[in-house]
Amino acid sequence: MIDPALLEFLKELAQNNNKPWFEERKADFKKLDNEFKDFTAAVMVELNQNDVIEKAKNYRIYRDIRFSKDKTPFKAHRSVNWLRAGADRRGSYYMRIKPNENVIGIGFFGPEKEDLLRIRKELELDAQEMRDIISSPSFKSCWGELQGEQLKTAPRNFDKNHPDIDLIRFKAFYFMKSYTDKEVTSPDFMDKVIESFHTGRTFLDYMTDVLTTDLNGESLL
After folding, report:
1. What PANTHER family does this protein's entry cite (predicted)?
2. Tell me: the pLDDT tens digits for 95-153?
3. Are 168 and 18 in contact (CB under 8 A)?
4. How confident is the model over 58-85, as pLDDT tens digits?
5. C-alpha span between 189 and 180 (Å, rounded)
6. Cα 68 to Cα 192: distance, rounded to the nearest angstrom
7. Quick check: helix, strand or coil at residue 81?
């Protein structure tokens, strides 16, 4: 479970997003952040029962404001990406803890140009397997609809009238699931996260198969 004190700290930080306020409470933050990292490490242990995770990448609370008009120095949330290990395990698991906006996610949040083209080529050839996975009752009841930025029209060199253009237009391919503050601070929160991630494996495994083979199904590894 997530410590309710972390949510309270983040609420106060959102209202007092400045360095003096944060520095006065830095010791409190470090304690809460270490607990958060312990939670993400425990999730990684559980994920490794059925997957192979390279690391839990806990993102810094400090914002990079060098090229931003928004000069607030801190992120009013904590987030982590669990990265799957090896070229034969693509995609990642994600979690963000933010008061009233808690989410977990799976998928491909910013695919490389070459990967995006390979995915689109696969969908152009045959999108039925992806459709079967993301529309299955167990998957859809858990994860809902496919998300990600989309082009307004067809990508270059793709037919705008292709029957699967709705999928081909995606620039990222992921799913997000929301949780209330009460849910993330409940003792069974980790179990819910792990169960949802396990359900999402079918999508990650399908995309891995696509990205590790050519259009003839021959392995690229």
Report:
1. CHROMOSOME 12, WHOLE GENOME SHOTGUN SEQUENCE, DUF2461 DOMAIN-CONTAINING PROTEIN
2. 999 999 999 999 999 999 999 999 999 999 999 999 999 999 999 999 999 999 999 99
3. no
4. 999 999 888 888 889 999 999 999 999 9
5. 11
6. 36
7. strand
Contact between 174 and 143 (Cβ < 8 Å): no
Lookup: tokens for 201? 């494996």
At which residue do the structure tokens 């997003």 appear?
17
CA dist., res. 40 & res. 169, Å (int): 33
Structure tokens, 25:
């409470």
The whole-angstrom separation of Cα 185 and Cα 188 is 8
Q: How far apart are CA 212 and CA 110, in angstroms?
A: 17
> What span, in angstroms and rounded, lies between the C-alpha atoms of 144 and 146?
7
Say if residues 94 and 106 touch (Cβ distance below 8 Å): yes
- The domains of the chain, with CATH numbers, are 4-209 (3.30.930)
Q: 99: which residues sit within 8 A by CB, 6+ positions away?
A: 7, 10, 11, 14, 76, 181
At residue 81, what are phi and psi to the nearest 5 degrees?
-120, 125
Alpha-carbon gap, residue 165 to 161, rounded angstroms: 7
